[in-house]
What we know:
Layout: H1 4-19, H2 26-32, H3 39-51, E1 55-56, E2 65-66, H4 68-78, H5 87-97, H6 104-119, E3 122-126, E4 135-143, E5 147-154, E6 159-165, H7 172-186, H8 191-203, H9 211-224, E7 231-234, H10 236-239, H11 248-259, H12 261-272, E8 278-281, E9 293-302, E10 305-315, H13 320-339
Antiparallel strand pairs: 1-2, 3-7, 3-10, 4-5, 5-6, 8-9, 9-10
Amino acid sequence: MLDERTERVLWAVIQSYIENPDPVGSRYVTKKYAFSYSPATIRNIMADLEDMGYLKQPHTSAGRVPTDKGYRYFVEHIISRDIGYDERLVEELERRIKNMVEDMDGVLNEATKTLSTLSHFLGLAISPGPEGSTLRRIELVPYKDDRIAVLILTDEGVIKHKIIKNEFSLTANDLSSIAKYLNREFTGYTIKEIRNQLVKELAEDKNLCDTLIERALKLCHESLDEYGANVFITGLSSILDLPDFTDIEKIKELSKAIEDKHKMIKLLDRIVQTEGVQVVIGSENPIKEMSAMSIIASTYKDKDRPAGIVGVIGPKRMDYKAVITLVDTAARYLSKIFEEGGGK
C-alpha cells in the first residue's frame, strides 16, 4: 500500500491523463491540484512512483503516464471506495426496453447500445448460456468435406446444430458408437456438469486406455464449446474519434478481435465465475490485439445464479469510476428483470 501523500499524487496523474492524453508533468499537477506540496516534493514522489512501476516516462523530456500497474492500484485502492448507482442509465434502459422484456436478446442489444452511448466506448453483453439445461441426446453424423454434424437436444426441447472437423477420420460406425457412449454417460446431466467432467477426464487422458473413449470425450468437448451463447458488442464508431485510436492498424486489429466470438467468450468466461464488477486492464488481457484496452464487466443473475455478462470495452485511459458505476448498475438492472420473470 502507498502512503496517503503518494496515493494522492498517483490519483492526480491518472485523473489528469484520463482527462487529457498527454504525459503529465509535476508542474501541471502542482498548478491543477491544491495539495500544498512543493513542486520539488511532487517531482520526487512522481519519480518514486516511476521507480515502483506505477508510472512511466515515454520520453526523457516528457512528463509521466500511468502503467497497467498504476491503473490497477487506482482501481483497487483509490476509486473502489466510492462506486454509486447510475440513475441516468436506469431511466434510459426503462425507456428503451419497457416493451421487450420477453425478448432477452433484444434487451441485451439495447443494454449494450445504452452503455456505449453513456460511456462513449464499446457496450458488451453475453446472453444466458445453457449451463443449467439438461442433455437429452447427442447425435454425430458424417458430413461433407471430412466434417461432423453435431445435434444436441436438451430438456427444454432446444436443438443445437454445429459442424466440427473430423480430425480423426472417424467412420459412420465410429460416430454411432461414440454417440451411444456419450448418451449413456451424460444424458440427464446439465451442460455445466458435462463440461466440468470433460475437463477433468481430458486432463487425466493419460489414464485412458480406450482410444475411442478419448476421442469421444474430445468430440464432446468441442461440440459443447461456445454452445448457446450470443455476444453483443455495440459502438465501435464511438471510440474511433478518441485520440487513443489514431492508428488505423490498431483499429483493424481491435475490430477483428471483437468480431471473434470464440475469443470473446473465452476471455469473459472467467468473469461468470466471479462476484461483482471485474476489471481487466491492458496487458492482463489474454487477447494480444486488445492489450491497449480495458474491459469492465459483471455478471447479471437469474435467481442468484450467474446468467450472462454485461460490460464496457474502452481504452486504458478511461474514467474507471464512472464506467464501473455504469456496469454495476446495468448488471443489477438486468438481474432485476430476470428476477421479475423477463427474458423467459
